Amino acid sequence: MRPLAKDDPQQIGPFRIVGLLGGGGMGRVYLGRAADGRTVAVKTARSELADDRGFRTRFAREVAAARRVGGPFVAPVVDAAPHDDVPWMATDYVPGVSLTDAVHDCGPLPEPAVRLLAAGLLQALAAVHADGLVHRDLKPSNILLTADGPRVIDFGIAYSATDTALTMTGTALGTPGFMAPEQLVMTGPAVTGAADVFALGGVIVFAATGGGPYGSADPQILMYRTVHEEPRLDGLPDGLTEVAAACLAKDPEQRPALPALMARVGGPGPYGDWLPAPVAGQLRRLDARLADPRSPDASARRPPAQGPAGVPFDQLPTGATPDGPPPPPPPGTPPAWPAHAATPPPPHLPGHPATPGPSRRRVLAALSAVGGLAGTGALGWALWPEGQDRGTTGKHAGKRPADSGKPSSHLPPEIRAKGRVIVGSDIAYAPMEFVKDGKPAGVDVDLANALGRELGVRLTFENATFDALLTGLAAGRYDLVMSAMGDTEDRQQGRLNGEKTGSGVDMVDYFRAGLVIAVRRGNPDGISKPADLSGRTVAVQRGSLARDLVGEIGRKTAKEIKIREFDSQPALYDDVAKGRSSACLDDFPVAAHTVATLSGGGVLEIVGEQLEPGLYGIAVAKTHTALRDAVRGALDRVIRSGEYTKILKKWYVQDGAVERASVNSGE
């Protein structure tokens, strides 16, 4: 551990900072103490990244991913504030040595330890995949060896299962040498949980031999070997060769499923003395210096107040073990990211893929149907009437949003009985649904509040990855899904890639959106339609439907369109505002809101009509016809009253209005 420098924080949220554990391109990790002495690892973001809205969204998703995945082999989150000035996330700290350091310092692990390592990692991956996530960066440095077994950490790219192969900094989404071929070939198969199985094969090779399956070389060479060469399994014990080779198959469909691997490897534990003596000795020394003061035998070995100075830095990777709820923050501490709901995981649904589906933008464009599994828990917010806080007391406390205070008789009896509707949503898409000032905000949130008042019930938003929402609805986790979700025929009929995967859903349509062209205010290049982009420079987000559409337009125009690709939406608009690009293409609600709010408005404008518009719908299970009809009726009343128009105008998206509520009108 390194001592704190002058510019390092002394306090982060409710935690006193006592040392620096490490750092990298994304930020730093500190050792902290809670008020009761609990030791935590606090991950923070670099200040320049904190100013990037796209990064904040990714950081919030990392928090959500880490919070939702449970189990003894995954590091849980103690507290987090992804929307603070400097975003941070804290996990319980338990003495642990990264697999990288253990092998480097003490040599390869013996076969029994590797088997126990693999067994624990399989349990961790099962928990990750059950939440519709793909870790995507399972590697030795993201695996901690503890006295109680391995721990998987770092969910920084777990939600990026359908992103392109590069991040905004140009580095691969993953680690060369452990990334699956489909993560490296942009035209290859979709990235699914099979990519984590491939990485597990690489981890087994590293743990047992001290080297990766493709040797040691520059990243570009490792990527080439991964795609074109066979893994190097020399030196593996006979009992592990077959398992590693199966995991490292080039074709993701040829890799074994997790249950089959569990049967081959064996069950996790016991972990009483599972590690070689040199590694176990490192853990004992760390445990003595960093013991949790709440444990029964900790009083005699409580670390000094100033922190464990002198502990070697490479022996202090971050880690965690689930041992209870976090202590209450001291008075005046800013509110942390809301705790996730403690809801048991839904069963696996036959026919549904166990990994995230296509990217959100393609989902919005109606190019896919269903993806992922619902989460074991979600970030939850109850929506309250305007002007009333959660802490309100007195005669208005606890009142439902509706004026009558009684649930609508049109609602199903079970909804009336509980007095609320649970809404699944991916709250990360401004201006439709996003986090503002620590609370959900946007068109969907305001509209849900209006529907709640009409129906006489409270609506509770639960945040989950977008591609897991419909499966969560089918599993009964949500009553509705409201997340700027495109109404498609495949989605209505429960089809995925032309195959039947479920009973489908009914969509109560409430908004229309496509792609639009944004230009500088005054439209100096006279662009009004797609053909006018001929010979121009156009900014798009990498991997988006807009990128595909501009490519198609370019093939039909007389002059070549120069395409500038970016990884964040703010970069698109900045590029146009500075005159580097003549125009940008983006989703209508995002573009309309950005144009109206960027530097107070007056910098950019939208030209022409929406391109390829489609309907957004509120998803309801096909068996819940009474709820569907109640929602449709309430939406019609909100539209007729004029409140619907006011909501859309508030977020500058009135051009996406529908005239009336309809069901399954999408194509």
Assembly classification: single chain
Output mean pLDDT. Answer: 76
CATH homologous superfamily classification of the largest domain: Periplasmic binding protein-like II
How many H/I helices?
Answer: 20
**Low-pLDDT stretches:** 158-172, 292-380, 382-404
The top-level CATH class of the largest domain is Alpha Beta
Number of domains: 4
Largest sheet: 10 strands, mixed
The computed structural class is alpha+beta
- Shape descriptor reads globular
Structure characterization notes:
With 667 residues, the chain is α+β, with helices and mostly antiparallel strands. The chain folds into four domains: 1-95 and 290-303 and 312-323, Phosphorylase Kinase, domain 1; 97-286, Orthogonal Bundle (Transferase(Phosphotransferase), domain 1); 360-510 and 622-663, D-Maltodextrin-Binding Protein, domain 2, CATH 3.40.190; 513-613, Periplasmic binding protein-like II (D-Maltodextrin-Binding Protein, domain 2, 3-Layer(aba) Sandwich), CATH 3.40.190. The strands form five sheets. Strands 10, 11, 14, 15, 18, 19, 20, 21, 22 and 23 form a ten-stranded mixed beta sheet that branches. Strands 1-2-3-4-6-5 form a six-stranded antiparallel beta sheet. The protein is globular.
TL;DR?
The chain is an alpha+beta fold. Helices cover 30% and strands 19% of the residues.
Topology:
Elements: E1 11-12, E2 15-23, E3 27-33, E4 39-45, H1 47-50, H2 53-68, E5 77-81, E6 88-92, E7 97-98, H3 99-106, H4 111-130, E8 143-146, E9 149-152, H5 181-184, H6 194-209, H7 219-228, H8 238-247, H9 258-265, H10 277-289, H11 360-364, E10 379-382, H12 413-418, E11 420-425, E12 434-436, E13 439-441, H13 443-455, E14 458-463, H14 469-474, E15 480-486, H15 489-493, E16 495-496, E17 499-500, E18 505-520, E19 537-541, H16 545-556, E20 562-566, H17 569-577, E21 583-587, H18 588-597, E22 604-621, H19 625-641, H20 643-650, E23 662-663
Parallel strand pairs: 11-14, 11-15, 19-20, 19-21
Antiparallel strand pairs: 1-2, 2-3, 3-4, 4-6, 5-6, 7-8, 8-9, 10-14, 12-13, 15-22, 16-17, 18-21, 18-22, 18-23
Helix pairs in contact: 4-6, 4-9, 6-8, 13-19, 13-20
